[in-house]
Structures are given as C-alpha cells and as structure tokens.
Amino acid sequence: MSGAYRIAGKGRLTPARQARFSFDGKFYTGLEGDTVASALLAHGVHLMGRSFKYHRPRGPISAGSEEPNALINVARDATREQPNVRATVQEIFEGLKTNSQNRWPSLEYDIGAVNNLGAPFFSAGFYYKTFMWPKAAWKHVYEPFIRAAAGLGVAPKEADTDHYANRYAHCDVLIVGAGIAGLSAALAAAQTGASVIICDEQPEVGGALHYEAGTTVDGMPGFEWAQKTAQKLAAMDNVRLLTRTTAFGYYAQNFISLTERITDHQAMVEKSAPRERLWQVRAKRVILATGAIERHMVFDGNDRPGILLASAARTYLNHYGVAVGKKVGVYTAHDSAYEAAFDLKRAGVEIPAIVDTREKPGDAVMAEAAALGIKVLTGHAVIKTSGRLRVTSMTVGRSTKGTTTKYEIDALIMSAGWTPSVHLFSQSRGKLTWDADNARFVPGTHAQDCLAVGACNGTDGLANTVEEALGAGELMARAAGAAADAEKLSLNTETAFEWTGGMVGASEGAGPDTVAKAFIDFQNDVCAKDIRLAVREGMRSIEHIKRFTTNGMASDQGKLSNMHGLAIAAEALGKDIPEVGLTTFRAPYTPVTFGTIINHARGSLFDPTRKTPMHDQEAALGAVFEDVGQWKRAWFFPRAGEDMHAAVNRECKTVRETVGMFDASTLGKIEVVGPDAAKFLDLMYTNAWDSLKPGRAKYGIMLREDGFIYDDGVVGRLAEDRFHVTTTTGGAPRVLQHMEDYLQTEFPHLKVWLTSTSEQWATVAIQGPKAREVIAPIVDDQDISNEGLPFMSVVECKVLGGVPARLFRMTFAGELGYEINVPADFGPALWDALYERVEAAGGCAYGTETMHVLRAEKGYIIVGQDTDGTVTPYDAGLGWTVSKKKTDFVGIRGLKRPDLVAEGRKQLVGLKTRNPKVVLEEGAQIVADPNQAKPMTMIGHVTSSYWSEHLGSSIALAVVVDGHKRKGETLYIPMEKETIAVEVTDTVFVDKEGSRINV
Amino acid sequence: MLLIHCPYCQEERPETEFRHGGEAHIARPTNIADISDEEFEAYFFIRSNEKGVTFERWRHAHGCGRFFNAARHTVTDKFIKVYKAGEPKPTLAELGLESGESQ
C-alpha cells in the first residue's frame, strides 16, 4: 500500500495512517509523517527532478534541508503554490499536489537533456565567454535564450492568498537545533530558571537521532529520549520549543530570525491560521547546536538517481521504514557509511560491497562488517557508475588503470565525512579555524555572545557532545543572569560506534587531467574539472572561482559542495585549504518564502497613506489622486466626458482667465523661532533674511555644503523672531533633519527652535485674476488690497469669522494669488467656503497636473525634477537668490569649487518645439547635431514638458550644456521615430514682466 | 536590527528610531568661505572608512531628536561607547582598546 520498499517493522510511522498525494499527476499512498521524498522512495521512485544546466535526471541525495536535487513544485490550490520546494522537507498530506520541474515534456523524456550532450560546450564560464558578441545577437538570440533557460521552477501566476504572521521575542538563551546537543543544552539552561527558546527545522526534535539507531540516552533509544525531553521542556513555563522552525539569519547583537512553518504539512488548514510565522528573537545568549552535514564522494557518475548520502539512507530506513534499494552499494571514506550498511543489511537489503578509499577503516566497523558477512574493499574506489534514470551498476577498482569489477546495484550510498554546519556562526561574524587533522572548519573566535556545541563545533563522540552541551547550557544561562539553584546534570549515553575518517576533494578517477563527470554541486551541475578550469583560466580568489563556476550558488548554497570545491581549488592553486579560505556565509540558511519576509507589509499595509484634511472634499468633486511619496494628492478634477488632457486644459485656462483653488497642504512647513532665527536662516539659505521685514515673504534656496540645490520654498517672516518656512512636499523631513543637524552640531550657540508644522496647517491656494474677490468675504478685518497686502507678504489674521489663519500673498502659478493656512481641522470648512465662492466666480478646483503646467509656464522649478542634485542656483538661473554680502551660508564654499564655476555646465533653459503641437518626452536626450555618428554626444535632457493651453503650444524646460549662451539656437531631440527640432528659449513662457501678479 | 543607547534619553532603543549621520568629529571650518580647494576636499569629501572602530554621528530622530556620537566596531557592529555631541573623541585607551586592536 504505502510502497514496496517499505520494510515491515522498521521506522516510526504508523502504517494505518495513510495519506494520498500526487506527483506528476500520478497518485501515491504514503504514511503520515512521510516527506514527499520518503513516500516516493517507498514506491521505488528515485527520479524526482532534472538538474539546472545539463537537465540530468536526479533523485534525492539527502533526507534534509541540504537537498540540492529533489526540488519540486508544491500546490494546495491555484493561489497556494510554490516552486523549488525540497521533496526531502515537504511533508505529505491528503490531497497534496506535487510536480517535478525543469523538464519538458516529461521527467522521463526531457528535451532539455540535449544540453547534456552539448556539455563540452557548456563548460564553466560558458555564459561569460560565449555571449560576448556580436552585440546585436544579445537582443534577439542570447537574452531570450538565457531568459528561457533561467530559473528552475516556475513562479506562481496568482497572488498568494495565504497570510503570514510576525512576532518579536526576547529570551535569555536561544538554542538553535534540537538534536542531542541542543536538547541537552536546553535542559541545563532551563533548570536555572532562564527563559529559553529552542528551535529545530524538522517536524520532530532529535536531529541525528532520527537515524542513529545504535544510540541510547539514559537507557532509552536516542530518538525516544529526545521526544520525552521535548515534552518535558515544552511543559516548562520558561521554555518555548519551536519545531518546523529554521533559524535562517544571525544578525548583530544576537538578533536571530526564525521562520516557523505552520500549515504547510496540514491537509485541512484553518482559515485564520498563518502559513508561516517570522520570529525576530533578541537573545542575551545564543547556543548553536546545528550539527553537521554529510558530504558526498566526488567520482565519475556520482549523480545518478539512486545514489545518496549514507546518513540519508539510514534516515529513510530507521525513521521512515523505507529501504533505498534492494541491492545497495557503499562507497565511503568515513566509518559512518558502514553503520548505514549494517542497518540496511539487518533489514534484509543486499550489500554487494563496501568500497572504502582508506586502507585502514576503523577496527570496530571492520569487525562488525565481517560479522555480518559484508565484503569490504579497502583502498578501492568506485571508478564509474551506469544507469540512465536510475543507477544500475558500479565499477570498482584500485585505480582507473588496473582491473575493475562491475557490481549490479539499484542504489549506492556514500560518505566522504561530515562538514560542521558553521553557517550561523559565520553569519554572526565569528572567525573559523581550520582543523587540519579532520579537514574541517570549526568555530574559532566569537564575535557575539554565542557558543557552538556538538557536531557544529567539531566535537566528536556522543559523550563529549552531551558534556559540552550541558556545560554550555548552564554557562550561558548564568551569563544571562539566571540565578535559580540547579543540580549538576549528567546523561548516560551509549553509542554503537565511534567514527573516524573523512576526505575532501575528488576521489580516484576524478582527479586532475580527467574528464569525469564527478559532480560537486549537483543543482548547478558543477564538476571537479570545472573548478580546475576556473583556476586554469586565471581565477585565484575562491569568491571568483565560485562565481565563474557557480559552485555553491544554488538554492542549497553549497551545503554539500563548498568543502569539495575548496579542496579541489586549493589543490589546483597549489595552496593549503585555509590559505584559500571559504566563501562568505550569508543569510538565509535555507530559502525563506517572500511571504514570510514581506509579512503584513503588503496591499494597503505596505506603506502608510497620508491624506490631506480636504481629501474627502476633493474626492467628492471627482478628483483623481496621484501618489506623491506617501501622500495622495488630487491630480486633476475631470468633469463628465473629460479625459485627463481635457480636464487639465480646462483647469489651466480657468486659472489664467478667472480663478482656481488648489490643495497645497502637503507642502512641508517648519516653524523657525527664537532670537537668532534670522541669523540661522541666513546660514541655511543662500538668501539674506536679516533684512526681510516682518510681514514679508521671500523665495529661498537651500544648498548642501557642496553647492548644489537641496530644497526651495517661500519663507515668511511673521515677527522679528518667528519665520514660517515652507519646503517641497517630499523634502520636509530631510530639510528639518538638515536644519537640526547644523543647529545642534555646527551652530549650537544660536538660540533657535525648529518645529515641524507640516500637518498642523491645512493650506489652500487661490490663484487667478479673481482671487482677491473670491477670498475677500471670508477674510475677517484684514486689508487684502494690493497696497494692504502686496505681493510676497504674509499676515496672521482671522478667516471664516474667527478661525486663526496665516495668509500669504504669493503665487506658484504666476497669477494674483493667495495661500491661506488654517489649523488642519478647519481645512474642510475653509475648502467648502472657498469652493462655493470659486464656483460662483466661474472658477474651479485644480490638481497637481495643472499646478505643474502653470508653474512651468512661469519657469518656476521643481526641485528634484528640474534639478537633480548636481544643479547650482546659477545653473538654474536663480543666481539672484545668492546673497553677495554674506560671509557664510551652507554651500558658500561649495559654490566656488572649480567644477562649479567652470564653463560647460548644464544650465536650465526653456525649449520650444519647431512644431508647436509636438510635446516632448520628459527625460529625452538633446543633441546639437542630429546627423553625427552614433553614439551621439548628448548635451542635455528635457526635465519638464507640457502642453500649454494658454499659449496653444508645447513648452519644456531642459538642462543643456552652456544653455544660457544658447538662447535662440536650434537643438535636436532624436526619438525612436523622428528627430524633433527645438529652439532654446528663456525659461519664462508667460508674462515675463509679472504684470499678472502685481495687481 | 541594532539596539542603540541614546545618551540623552538614557535608553536603549531600536535602530528604527535613529538616523545615521555620517562620520563624527569633522568640524565645519569657521572660515569656510576662505579655505582652499584642498582644505574643502579634506573637510567635505574625505572620510576615514575604518575597518575597525569608527566614530560616527547618530540622531535619535524619532525620540528626543538630538544628535550624539558613537564609537562602533564596523566588523561586529558592536557599540563600544555613545556620548553626547560636543564631548571629545575618546582615545582607544579610553575605550578599553589597545592601539592596533581597532582592526
């Protein structure tokens, strides 16, 4: 039922609890607790995927998260689908749908496998070398080809309907890994009263105890002890035990990110349940008990389905009750594979031979092999394998040159030894040291308050591991401040065999000068010879070798391949391994879903939305809004039958002919107050403020110290010691920061207070010939005549019968204009009162698009649109704002820099198209001679461009090299379909004399 | 996310409350209008970019709003000391480090 390779009496799953799932459309029955890999292996299915580059048939090599081969697509339904899931991790449930990837038309017959035949042409660095020329081929040949071939799985088409949770947590001791080391450390830490979080990526605790059948702890089988210990820990108030939870990132100050998979294994998912939960844990102390990962042997044909790690075969047998084959060969350089062979043999699996590269394996395992009647070939190698979709034989000999023997097999298990999982330790910035005796990197100098214990620390032997872990648990708990009395813990452990051995790099038949397909990185199809090729082609740094060959760049991030790649590179470079060094370990430890990382920050929760006090009024008038930073701003107010173009034209015309009103509340506002306020503004702006009389306002330019325009705005002086500063909409926070910076750190002697008032004021601009008559009735007792409130004035007054207001006489449209500021809560009332009057006068509300057209007609710049951080006031034609008398202001020295006073700077000019109906594209490049050879010399670009209904022609602003001297010249804008001739003009298109303003 | 101790609030607060302000102890010349191109280059463009102990400015932007200085190790991100703006730059000895240890 649950598979012909399921061995009765083996494993820990319950035969009665079955679940049906599909793989490539075919249904299989597995047992609850199976992974997709174990369930398929139970049916004798090893072929689960195709490799990335050569499309070689592949089966699972591991039984855990390090799996590079068995990547599948997993679907619950159309909106809950995920590619690149490891079949060795995904638990099955009733109704699960899975599919293989990177194959067409089917997994068994894959057209892409022709890449395998072309393998000699697809060597390392192939992409870098092949796709260089001809240039034109990029667009039509190379890029489509690379794009089609890129990626393994296919991204889901529908938006993810799952939701994801997020929690912050603090603890005294965080323990990563709940194998015997992690559990021991947790016991010792917990009994001191310390708050403990212990997590493990697997569904059940136990780590290596999943397969370690010969281990007992306190008289119990190891796995049973682990489950009992987990129950005990989970019952304690000061312990949180998280399974299916991967610690994937170790950041500064013991900040660890965990991802907890909550529903991926459930057949029926509660609607309210989050799929995954991101834990962000701040731990006083961290204990890393992340274990070790077994390495494969590097030999010719080591990637066929049916070839897998010895510990994986043991896990499938001892935990899932599944034999990986009926006739299993063993190839090893380490004792651990022997134990796998013993377990399989005892379960009735035939073991034709153990092939060991070593002349002298451990005595104990040799004795046991003899007792079980297993043939051991020491000093031998597997020279090659055969089998298309499944391994069918291994060829064994002392060397490639001598006599060889072929063994029929249906699976091959292997071990080159164990690589400590130092990923998190390295992420914590700890330094690794090289353990030459055992050919491994182990944690050295710590950078943070953490300890590594057990296999990830290079600690060998069960008793040593437990002793180390118990000690570390107590030590770290005490260091974190735990004070409860606690007895000294000890655990009695017994294990069948202590292991020795191990090798890194290629084995016999895959050495230098061979062309063997001896894979080191399975997912990316990197062979031993590719590493050597990289070195021959001049790569010296391991980081370059990695990128040239793509070794370790797959989704498994080199968990199996890094050490082999390093050893082969070191040999080819003639250096020692530590001299070559490892590539940098980076988060995440295993792939993390975007859902977990994005978490709640999607849809309407992605970013805050800021609305002005008059938002609802504008919406009621039918405004279309645009996003300006976080602000929703009314863009235009279309009337029945109008498109944007028609609405904007009408709004522009109305403002110029009668009157318009505009919501200017988003403008940044800063209140600058204090006896030294004028002195301070003198330093912050290019203009002189000391001479500005209370009641007057002025347009100010703010520079950075390098002399470039940083922000602009109108500043009104309300009193000797009080200024109302306005900034650009987007610039408010950084301008305040900039001012605070200088005030606090450079000019702390000045007595000035800065207060952000952007959201305290609602602001309505009234612009147009009828502006004065519109506002007159709503302004209380204030002379607003041209004499009483001349252009560029500000006054504090009352409006609407008693509402305090700041009334500016100013314009950003080039008209008779006012800006009325009232406390934000009065914004809607002010808007309503004004709208009634505006409408009666034949005016309208206008949006940001019209505001842009009107200001461009007047040549008023928008900082960040017409300037880009490399424009000086002189470049922008705003030299008049720079005081000649002041001896200091921010940017005064920057303005004198040689490059800023040199000829050939890009300067702001106006452009008129020869054909007035043509509206230029913003960003379009400008050339002097349209007939010059390509690539043409570009002398500037269009910064603002609009249709001016008022002028009946297009208008544009642009920055052009030496633009101020080019007035009257004809320049050209080459576009895809035509070249547009333009005349360089002044930046002011409408009312150069300002006669519309001063009325 | 870093935890940063604000020397004004006397509180350890998350990094999101703070804004980084570049290298510390770079005084703006009081006669800035008159300095040479080389002096301006040294003041405005040249930064030490230490691998090791760096002295940097922070502003508790979403707290007290004040600028302060910190000595931080750029490899481990460890804050060795925070101190108020205007206080002198600590020597390595004052930070409990030997010279050379800053690497």
List keywords for this structure.
heterodimer, A: about 1000 residues, alpha+beta, Ubiquitin-like (UB roll), FAD/NAD(P)-binding domain, 7 domains, seven-stranded mixed sheet, 24 helices, 51 strands, about 25% strand, B: about 100 residues, mainly beta, Folate-binding fold, four-stranded antiparallel sheet, two-stranded antiparallel ribbon, about 10% helix
Most extensive chain interface and residues per partner? A-B, 26 and 25 residues
**CATH third-level topology of chain B:** Folate-binding fold
Major sheet description of chain B = 4 strands, antiparallel
**Computed Rg of chain A:** 37 Å
CATH architecture of chain B: 2-Layer Sandwich
Structural class of chain B: mainly beta
Strand content of chain A: 25-35%
CATH architecture of the largest domain in chain A: 3-Layer(bba) Sandwich
Order of helices and strands of chain B: EEEHEEE
Strand order of the largest sheet of chain B: 3-4-5-6
Can I get a quick summary?
Chain A has 999 residues and is α+β, with helices and mostly antiparallel strands. Chain A contains 24 helices and 51 strands. The N and C termini of chain A lie far apart (94 Å).
